[in-house]
Predict the 3D structure of the following.
Amino acid sequence: MRSLKIGLIGTGFMGRTHSNAYAQVNKFFDHAIQPALTAVCATNAPKTAAFAAQWGWESVESDWRTLVNRPDIDVVDICTPNNTHCAIALAAAEAGKIIICEKPLAMNADEARRMVEAAEHSGQPTMVSFNYRRIPAVTLAKQLVDEGRLGRIFHYRAKYLQDWTINPNLPQGGNTLWRLDAQAAGSGVTGDLLAHSIDLALWLAGPIAQVTAMTETFIKERRLQDDPDTVKPVAIDDACAFLARFANGALGTFESTRYACGRKNQNTFEINGEKGSIAFDLENAHQLEYYNHADDGLVRGFRTIPVWDGNHPYMSHWWVPGCAIGYEHTFIHQVSDFLDGLERGEKRVPDLRDGYATQLVCDAVLASARTGMWQPAR
Ligand code: SOE
C-alpha cells in the first residue's frame, strides 16, 4: 500500500474534520493509497502538540512555510482562516505539492485565480472542501439530474440558515470567531455559507450568468475576542439574499443568514424541472424529496427517499441499510473520492478551478450588494 503523506495546516473545526477523515477512510473504503498523518501545523505550540497527540499526527510544525517545504510531505491541506489560503496555496504549488483547501477558496476571485494558475502550472491534483456534495442524498440528487429525471430546469431555490451570531455580545475575531472578522474571512455569510449553496448550484444546475443581491449587517459593532476592551465596526455581511440567472435559462433564489433563530445549520435546495422536482434539507440529511410528474395522477406527490440503502451513493461502505450516517462522513467521502482519483489518475471535482467559479459568483454577489446593479458572475 502506498502512503500519501499529509501536512495539515490548522487545528480548528476543519482541522478536526479532516484529521478524522484521513484516519477513518481506509477503515471503510478500500484504497491502495493510505493517507499518513505526517505533520500538523499551527502557531500555538502546546495546543498543536495536544492536537497531534489526540488525532495521531506524527510531527508538529509552527510555521506553515516549513511544513510546505518539507520534502516528506505530499499533500498540503489548508484548514486555516480564509486570509491565509492564497499565500499557503501559492507556496505549496511552488513546492510541487498536492493541494487540498477549505472553502471558500480565497478572500476574492483575484486570489482564487492566482491559486488556480499556480496549481495548474504545478500539474498536481487539487481539491476544494465542498463537503456537502458528498452527502449520499445530495450525490443522489446529482445522479437524478444527470439522468434527465427533472428534464429542463426552471427553478433553483437555496437557503443556508444559522443563528449563532444573534447574540450582540458575541465578540469578533481571534482564534474561534475569525468568521466575524472581515480581515480574516473576506466576507460573512456570502463566503462562509452561500459558497456551499453556490457550489451545489453550479454542480447541479450549471453556470450562473448574473446575479443581483442585497446584504445586511444587523449588529454594527462587536468587541474583539482577543482584546475585549476594544469595540470595532463589523464589516462582514450578516445576511445576504440574491437572485440569479443561470446560463441554461433557469432562475435562482438564494438566501443566507446567521440570524434565523432556531435554524442551526439548515442548508436546503429545491430544483423544479419540467418532469419533476427534488428537494434537500441538511437538517434531514438522509432524505431526498422527489416528485415525478409522470407518476399516476391519483397517487402522485412528493415522495421522501430515505437515502440509506445499500444501492445509494457511498452507503454500501457503511453499516446496514437504515443506519444513518452524519456530518463527519462527508469529509471521509471527499477524501475517499480524492484517493480514488489519484489511484486512477483521473481528475476529481470540485478542484481549485471549481472553487474559483464559486468565488466569482461570491464576488459578483458582493459587488451587486454594493452597487445595487446586476453583475456578471463568471
Ligand atoms: C459556519 O458556522 C460553518 O462552520 C461553516 O464555516 C461551514 O463551512 C459549514 O459547513 C458549517 O457552518
Remarks:
- The longest strand covers residues 33-41.
